[in-house]
Amino acid sequence: MTLLVAQALDEAAQACAEFGFTRTGERSWTGSFPLGGTIVPATLELPKRFPAALPIVRVTRDALPRRVPHVGRDGKICLAPSGVRLDIERPGEIVRAAVERSKRVLADGLTDSADVELQREFQAYWPRQGGDVGSICNAAGPSREVIWRTLESRARFGTLEAVVADDPRQFREWAGRVGVRGVHCERALFVRLEQALPAPEFDDPMRVGEFIRKIRCRAPDASVFNSYLVKAQAKSLNVLLSMPDTSGESRIVVGLEFPLRPIPAMRRRPSQLIARVLQGHGPARGFAVRRLDADFLLARVGLPTDLAKKTVTLVGCGAVGSACAFQLLASGVGRVRLIDPELLEEANVHRHAAGIRFVGRSKVEALQLMLGEHFPHAIVEPIREPIESVLERTPEAITGSDLIIIAVGDETLELDLTKALPRDLPRVHVWLEAYGLGGHVLEVPAPKAHGCYYCLFGRSHDDVFTNEALFAADRQVFDKSLAGCAGTFTPYGAADATRAACEAQRAALRVLAGNSSNTLTSWMEDLEDFLGRGFKVSARASGFKPGERQSTTRFARPGCPGCKDERA
User: Fold this and answer.
1) Cα angle vertex 491, ends 487, 492, to 5°?
2) Residue 530 DSSP class
């Protein structure tokens, strides 16, 4: 034992003694808490990481006068969320704070707010017997019959045994995107409750008849139970229960398996048949339901939910474009169209979002497969054609979008697109400079307003057509090649592409939300490395420091070919 550990244990022992706890081992103590006229036995244990980890305080649950929130099955008191900051230089204070927090948790458990806290922890109390089940059903939908598909392999989803879907087509589309197969299909019930069930006690047996009576009085359309039970032939019935959480903003989904008694072939009224099915049967089996539906998965994004209704077309699916596609779907955009004619090559792998297993496939198809696994609730449409061909043959792929993002890294093509794209289509341009010098995002939510991609270009004193937004001085060659003319590329790293994609994502979200104006955003990165390679920087670069990011709305150019028609 080191001197620091010994000192920490001594300070902890002193703190425990102040609360009347008796030492029973090197890192353990026993004591008690007075609670509502009752003495509740307790233990305190110091984990090996103490003082970098909280003490573990447990009470004897049977001695509690009532159910107390934040007390686990083994009597462990939840003291604080994971990741809480601890003052590791004061071990004694950590112990004192843990004991005081334990006393508050127990005392609060006797107040009127305890039932609300128990409901907030509903899923922690729900019995979990066997593997988990995933649900891609609409959790806010009405009570209905759904399908239960057992999965061929649990390797992809750990303990996930089956997936419940609203219909076979929904499951096929989802399974095709994530790469799993269903091997057995049966019917199940999805029941919507308008009022939450009371949080069950740990290990409390759930009798079938009693539980169904609770469900019926909380479900406005519980008749689905009756219609299903009358024709049920299986030995058990799987039911997913959807109920409002304590905030009322989301829904909790849990599962139950009811054992069923076979119905004899005799003529009886439905109510008699249902009673026979349920009569005299043992407890139902509870199981955890992992929500895999889009509403739940997108809840943590913290962005407007209407993004799921938006369509974004992405032109260019190289390093920057592929990273943009990922960021768009991660933000909650519901549909992304990918336009790029090129194949994914070996040399692309370290900068591209798709991995080496997709080499030889088109970039758009590779991204569709990769993104489908990651975001199975979103729609990814691959278009393996040049953008010029798409505009000529299927312009609706462009005009039917809420936004177009251009990440082609080709100035001439982007200038041409500025004039060729529909005038009322919002757009975002994103590009990087060589050797990680910096990057740029141009958001044009109102193409008819002043300021477009063409406005960034002007004539130098010697009449050279120049992109004046760049940090690199004009008339320098940065392209490198590993395979002659066919293999040229602009050198920059994956981190640069990710940074550019994140900037483009923020610009896209502003445009889609209607909170944007025609704006050029630029950031400078590694100036020293760029100069060290013998390259020169532009006059604009002198206005930036390495690591600095600037935005401007003052770049519109009088007489610009891209927007001069609207100024006339």
Assistant:
1) 140
2) H
178-195 CB burial, b ≥16 within 10 A, e <16? eebebeeeeebbbbbbee
User: Cα–Cα distance between 462 and 60 in angstroms, integer?
Assistant: 87
Tokens of 57: 């305080």
Q: Are strands 283-291 and 132-135 parallel, antiparallel or unpaired?
A: parallel
Which residues touch 183 (CB under 8 Å, ≥6 apart)? 149, 150, 151, 152
Decide: residue 94, CB within 10 A, 0-12 exposed, 13-18 middle, 19+ buried. Answer: buried
Closest CA to 131 of 113, 148, 106: 148
In a 13 Å sphere around the CA of 509, the CA atoms on its Cβ side amount to: 21
Nearest Cα neighbor of 12 from 78, 63, 83, 86 is 86
Strands (E), 52-201: 56-59, 132-135, 144-151, 160-165, 182-192
Greatest pairwise CA separation for the chain in angstroms: 99
Q: Which residues contact 112 (CB under 8 A, 6 or more apart)?
A: none
DSSP string, 495-529: HHHHHHHHHHHHHHHHHHHT---SEEEEEE--HHH
- Say if CB 75 and CB 61 are below 8 A apart: yes
Successive 10-residue mean pLDDT values, the chain, 568 residues = 83 96 96 91 96 95 90 90 84 96 93 86 81 91 92 72 94 90 89 85 67 70 64 73 86 85 55 52 79 87 80 96 96 95 88 89 95 92 96 92 95 93 92 93 84 89 87 82 52 87 96 93 91 92 94 90 58
- pTM of this structure: 0.82
Strands (E), 231-350: 236-244, 251-259, 283-291, 311-315, 335-339
Beta-carbon contacts of residue 93 (< 8 Å; ≥ 6 apart): 15, 87
Contact call for residues 278 and 270 (beta carbons, < 8 A): no
End-to-end CA distance of the chain: 83
Q: What are phi and psi of 177, to 5 degrees?
A: -75, -40
- Measured distance CA(132)–CA(138) in Å, rounded: 18
Decide if 163 contacts 292 (C-beta within 8 A): yes
